[in-house]
From TrEMBL, chain A:
The lineage of its organism: Bacteria, Bacillati, Actinomycetota, Actinomycetes, Kitasatosporales. One of its GO terms (cellular component) is plasma membrane. It comes from Streptomyces griseofuscus. It is a multi-pass membrane protein. It is found in: Cell membrane. This is Sugar transport integral membrane protein.
Automatic annotation (TrEMBL), chain B:
Pfam families: BPD_transp_1. This is Sugar transport integral membrane protein. It comes from Streptomyces griseofuscus. The chain crosses the membrane at residues 34-53, 93-119, 131-151, 179-201, 233-253, 285-307. The keyword Chaperone does not apply. The lineage of its organism: Bacteria, Bacillati, Actinomycetota, Actinomycetes, Kitasatosporales.
């Protein structure tokens, strides 16, 4: 809903108020300064524990190369875990969102309420209880175990978000597909999913970011170095090598890249996701 | 997904069977429809419902480092609860959690609202700037924490260098027991501003324009319009933003660990980090469960507000 009104309003020609734009840029500079500093520090690997200059003097990429040596494997782990989590998340949440949006199920409201309530369960409480269960099931230190836990970060959000979009699919479209002899599953895969592409992408992006950013499950559900995502990698590295800031910041830049890429590629989906998922 | 069974098209069934039983087909249809929803419900029960129940049970059990070899965690009544509530650190962490959460919310909300109002004015590049503003919120929290740890360094951090230009002495942001909690709160405000801005901006965009036209015809000042029209109309969104903010702030763990590890001298320990320390560092999962339960209880009170807010939205 929010996006529709935004779009229609944006059509109106903006008044040329560049003074406001300048102020906006200033605010943005202040907000993004820490991220600039991250990149800046990463490009001055020789600064170590000294003060960092305001701008890098040249393109010293040795911080990045040592970060790739130290954290390259962990970055790949993060990628694998996050992608796995997205697949699990969408596989569970897309059908559920459809069912809750279109079938007039008794109890659907309760499920939606329950989904909203999950947001109040602190992650550390989940980890606390999950750990011993994971030990029993042999899921500690496993990729699959971490993928499952990380998928749980995205599922409630994905259900709420996709449901709010799927409600808008006209019943006639679904009925027409079923009259044509398509089963419920076929209708879902062939008609509903393509029509919900945008919400599917948004949910996928967010569950990717949630899983990629996860630190707590990585920290608590792993006892060895076997499965170590980059968030955990950086945290442990900084504990052990206090002085090596250039390399740490380079690793941080690499860990922040997915966020930046997603923001550039999928700007409108992300804004819609934040508002759509939390207000509706 | 694999558990969802797809019944053949209903049309075939009705021609093949001589007398279709409407009640039975309806039941079969309902069952097939629940097949779409059930896997996700089961997943959420396992990953959210079960931990809640399990934590309550665990809080009455005695866990030791050897528990995971022997499998023995005998029930010990209220011992864990007594230990936690008798420990000064718990009271300290509770107080610090409250200060951190409320401080974060006030800061995030006020600045977020200001920025939302700012971006609500239309100006060139407004949309792009607003989108870029999201970046701090999208970056993994641990990464933000580590970056700020460098910025806030007492001797070589850029913040103190900058403040030094104005003659302000080197503040031990993360190493003084008096300042560390404030520093952690400030960093969390920075992280939360984008979220508040985006949701409040969305809320502002949905407000009916006619009311504003009427107000400006009546000659109402900008501040008056904001106070008597914008804020009351925005109330449902404000509630949602504050409650969601509360629930994500009160349980925070990543940021504190990345910035201070709960130190110095436990001065930034929160209920979240305390749960982690008890369970995963001391391996006393029973004590950790007690602290976790308190955290759940606090969140639950606010979940009630959240559900109310959602119901008032007219859903």
């Amino acid at each position: 809903m929010a996006t529709i009104t935004n779009a229609t309003r944006a059509v109106g020609r903006p008044k040329r108020r560049w003074g406001t734009t300048a102020l906006g840029m200033l605010i943005l500079c202040v907000m993004l300064f820490p991220l600039y500093w991250m990149v800046n520090t990463a490009l001055q690997p020789d600064s170590g524990l000294l003060e960092v200059d305001p701008v890098p003097h040249g393109l010293d990429l040795s911080g990045f190369s040592s970060a790739l040596t130290e954290q390259g494997g962990h970055l790949l782990t993060s990628l694998a875990v996050a992608l796995g989590a997205v697949v699990i998340c969408l596989a569970f949440s897309a059908p559920a969102a459809y069912g809750l949006a279109q079938f007039k199920l008794r109890g659907a409201r309760t499920v939606v309420f329950g989904t909203l309530i999950t947001q109040m369960v602190p992650g550390i409480v989940i980890a606390n209880a999950l750990y011993s269960t994971y030990v029993h099931l042999g899921l500690v230190n496993s990729y699959f175990g971490l993928m499952l836990a990380d998928a749980s970060l995205g599922i409630p959000f994905a259900i709420v978000l996709m449901r709010s979009f799927m409600v808008a699919i006209p019943r006639e479209v679904i009925e027409a597909a079923e009259v044509d002899g398509a089963g419920r599953m076929r209708t879902f895969v062939r008609v509903v999913l393509p029509m919900s592409r945008n919400s599917l992408i948004t949910a996928g992006l967010f569950s990717f970011l949630y899983a990629w950013s996860d630190f707590m499950f990585a920290l608590t559900l792993n006892t060895t170095d076997h499965v170590k995502p980059v968030t955990l990698g950086i945290y442990q590295y900084i504990g052990a090598h206090v002085g090596d800031w250039g390399s740490v910041m380079a690793a941080s830049v690499l860990a922040a890249i997915p966020a930046a890429v997603l923001l550039v590629l999928a700007q409108k989906y992300i804004a819609a996701g934040i508002t759509g998922g939390s207000v509706k | 997904m694999s558990t969802t069974t797809v019944p053949g098209p209903a049309a075939i069934g009705s021609t093949a069977e001589t007398a279709p039983d409407p009640a039975r087909t309806r039941r079969r249809r309902t069952l097939a429809q629940w097949g779409f929803v059930a896997p996700a419900v089961l997943f959420m029960l396992l990953f959210f419902g079960y931990p809640l129940v399990r934590n309550i049970v665990m809080s009455f059990q005695h866990y030791t480092p050897s528990t995971f070899f022997t499998g023995k965690a005998p029930f010990n009544g209220l011992d864990n609860w007594r230990n936690v509530f008798g420990d000064d650190l718990f009271g300290k962490a509770l107080w610090q959690t409250i200060v951190f959460t409320i401080g974060s919310l006030i800061g995030q909300f006020c600045i977020g609202l200001g920025l939302a109002v700012f971006f609500n004015r239309r100006f060139p590049l407004g949309g792009v700037l607003r989108a870029l503003m999201l970046l701090p919120w999208l970056v993994p929290m641990v990464v933000s924490g580590i970056v700020w740890r460098r910025i806030l360094d007492q001797d070589t951090g850029v913040l103190n260098s900058f403040l030094g230009l104005f003659g302000i002495g080197h503040t031990p942001w993360l190493t003084s027991t008096h300042v560390a909690l404030l520093a952690v709160t400030l960093v969390n405000i920075w992280i939360g501003i984008p979220f508040n801005t985006v949701i409040l901006y969305g809320g502002l965009q949905e407000l009916p324009r006619e009311v504003y036209e009427a107000a400006s015809l009546d000659g109402a000042s900008a501040w008056r319009t904001f106070r008597s029209i914008t804020l009351p109309l925005l109330r449902p969104v404000v509630t949602v933003v504050l409650v969601l903010g509360f629930m994500s702030t009160v349980k925070i763990l990543d940021l504190v660990l990345a910035l201070t590890d709960g130190g110095p001298a436990d001065s930034t320990q929160t209920l979240g980090t305390l749960t982690y320390q008890d369970s995963f560092v001391q391996l006393d999962f029973g004590t950790g469960a007690v602290v976790g339960n308190v955290l759940v209880l606090i969140s639950a009170v606010f979940a009630v507000f959240y559900l109310r807010a959602n119901r008032n939205e007219g859903k």
